[in-house]
Write a structure and sequence with these properties.
Length: about 80
Amino acid sequence: MTDQPKYWFPAKRYGWGWGWPQTWQGRVALSIFFVLLAAGGLVLLPDGQIPLFLGYTVLLCCVLMAVCYVKGEPPRWRWGKE
């Protein structure tokens, strides 16, 4: 057993932010994001509601970033291997 917490989203090796999910929970969260984004596109874009779709997309991105912040490694700038 390891004492380190298991992060859904590991930190990127270079830069700031998170990489691809490493757990099934992270993959489910990212899949839900893409499904909701596609559903919003199918519902809002044919009607020409582009500003509403852009707001919806920003909201989804903010929610995904909040999930990454809570369930991912603490964010900080990284320069590669430490």
